[in-house]
Amino acid sequence: MRYLKWLVTTLTVTMIVGLVVLIALVVMRFNASKPLALPAEITLPDGTTPTAFTRGSDWLAVVTTDDRILIYDLDGTTLRQEIEITPR
């Protein structure tokens, strides 16, 4: 019985230490990530309203209410490509 008590206590301590290590790793990982660089503003064509936004490795994409995807450089002012979304 004494051996079983020792095993349960050891397992409990091991689980607590493991949980603390996992939490510490997650906190360190979030603190180490660099902030996402976004432009202060994006120049959209007149009359467009954005509905969604995403960032790629060297581009920004804005989906508009008139079913277009506008691809910009990371500066947010140079329009690279415009994609028209057509229904099926």
How would you portray this structure in words?
The protein is α+β, with helices and mostly antiparallel strands. The protein has 2 domains: 1-33; 38-88, no CATH class. The protein has 1 helix and 4 strands. A 4-stranded antiparallel sheet has the order 1-2-3-4, with no helix packed on it. A hairpin with a 4-residue loop joins β1 and β2 (60-64). The longest helix has 31 residues, at 2-32. The chain is elongated, with a radius of gyration of 25 Å.
Strand order of the largest sheet: 1-2-3-4
**Rough shape?**
elongated
Poorly predicted parts: none
Strand content: 25-35%
**Mean pLDDT across all residues, rounded?**
91
N-to-C SSE series? HEEEE
Helix content: 25-40%
Please summarize the sheet with the most strands.
4 strands, antiparallel
Strand count: 4
Work out the count of structural domains. 2
| First-residue to last-residue Cα separation | 71 Å
Q: Count of helical segments?
A: 1
Radius of gyration: 25 Å
Given helix and strand content, the structural type is: alpha+beta
